[in-house]
Amino acid sequence: MLDPIPPPSSALLAITKPWADKLSLPTLPHHIHEVLFALVLYQGTQSVLSPLLSKAFFPKIYPNLNRRTRINWDVHVVSMVQSCLINTLALWVMFTDEERGQMGRSVIGRVYGYTGASGLIQGLACGYFLWDLVVSTRYIKIFGLGIWAHAVTAFFVFSFGFRPFANYYGPPFILYELSSPFLNIHWFCDKVNMTGSKLQWYNGMVLLVTFFCCRLVWGTYQSASVYYDVWQVMQMDLTAVLHQGSDIPVTSKNAANLFGVRGGELCLGDARCVAAQSEVMRFVDEKSHVPLWIVVAYLVSNLTLNALNWYWFGKMIDTVRKRFTEKPVDKNENENEKRARERRASKSIVEDAADTLDHEVMSGPVTPGVELTEKAAMRMSSGRDGGAVVNKRRRDI
C-alpha cells in the first residue's frame, strides 16, 4: 500500500537526500516530513496543548502541581496522544496493507521489503522517539537512565527501518504500545484524586493483561522472529536470489510478475495498485546486504528493549510477592506505622502491581530526598492528617 500521506516538497527532498545517502537510509527522504510532523506535534502537545487543556479541564489541580509533576503530566499527555494514534495506524496498516501481507510470505520480503504505509509508521515512530530522546535527556534526573536507554534503543531500532531493514516488523513492534494508554490512565487517576476508584482498579486489570500479552508474549515472539529471519538472510547469497529466483526474485524489473495479483485479483491497469506492488522491492539490489554492525546494533537494541520490559514485569511480580511475605505485625509499632500498614493492606494487589509498573516505566525512581520527606511528614503528623500529607506528596511525584 502506498503512503496515504502526500510526499514531501521537492526542497525538503533535496535537503534530506544527501544526508540519507551518506547514512544509507534511502527511504528516509520519502518520510522525512512525517518524522518532522511527529516531532513538532509531540513537542507542541507538551509545550502548548497539554498546559492549555489541562488548565481548562483541571483548573484546581494542574496549576498547583510542582515543576516535576507538571513535566510528568505533560509527558503523559504526549504519551497518551502518541500511543492512541500510532496503535490505531499500525493496526490499520497490518490489516489493510496487502503488499505488506505478500512481503510476509518470504524471508527476503520480511527483511528487505518496503511499503509506503509501513514507512509512514516508521516515520511517525521515529519522530516520537526522537522527541522522547530529547525529553528524557533534558530531564534525565526526573525520568532516570532506564527511560533514557529505552528512548535511545527505540529510536535506533526504528531508524534502521529506513534502509529499509525489517520494515515488515515496524507495525508489529509498535503494538508494544498497546499497554501505554492504560498506564497513563492509571497515572492520571492518582493525580486527579481517583486513587483506589473502580476506574483505576478495572484499568489496572487491563493494564497488567495488555502489558504481559503485548510487551512480553507478543514482543518476545516478534523479536525471536526477527532474529530468525536475519540469521536466515545472512546465510543467503543475495545475488543468487536476485538472478536465479530462489526464495523470491526481488528486482523491481520483474515486480509486475511478482506482484501482479493482489487479493486474488489483477491490478487491471490501476496505477496505484501497480505502483504499490512495484515499490515493495524497489530498494533491493545486490548491494542490499545489511552490514554486520547494523545487525548487531539492531539485535542489541531489541534485546535492551525486551530486557527492560522483563525487568519492569519482574518488579511487578516482586511487589505482588511482598504482599504474601510481609513481616509479622510488631506489637510495639506506633499509630502511624499501624495506619500505614492498614493502608497497604486495603490496597488491592492489582493496584499495587499497577503502581509499581507506573513508577518504573513512566516516572523513574523516586529520589532519596522525596523518600525522606515522606518519612518526616509521617513522623510529624498523626492520624488522617499524616496519611493525607504523605498521599499528597506521592501524588505530586
TrEMBL record:
- Which residue ranges are recorded for the region named Disordered? 328-348
* Keywords recorded for this protein, A-Z: Membrane, Transmembrane, Transmembrane helix
Intracellular or extracellular location(s): Membrane
**Chief subcellular site?**
membrane
Give the compositionally biased regions (Basic and acidic residues).
Answer: 328-345
UniProt superkingdom: Eukaryota
Q: Start and end of every TLC domain? A: 68-325
TM annotation in the entry? 35-54, 75-95, 107-130, 142-162, 168-189, 201-221, 290-313
Q: How does it sit in the membrane?
A: Multi-pass membrane protein
List the InterPro entries hit by this protein, alphabetically: TLC-dom, TLCD
**Pfam families reported in the protein's UniProt record:** TRAM_LAG1_CLN8
PANTHER family registered for this protein in UniProt: CT120 PROTEIN, TOPOISOMERASE I DAMAGE AFFECTED PROTEIN 4
Q: What is this protein called?
A: TLC domain-containing protein
Instruction: Say which species the protein is native to.
Output: Lithohypha guttulata
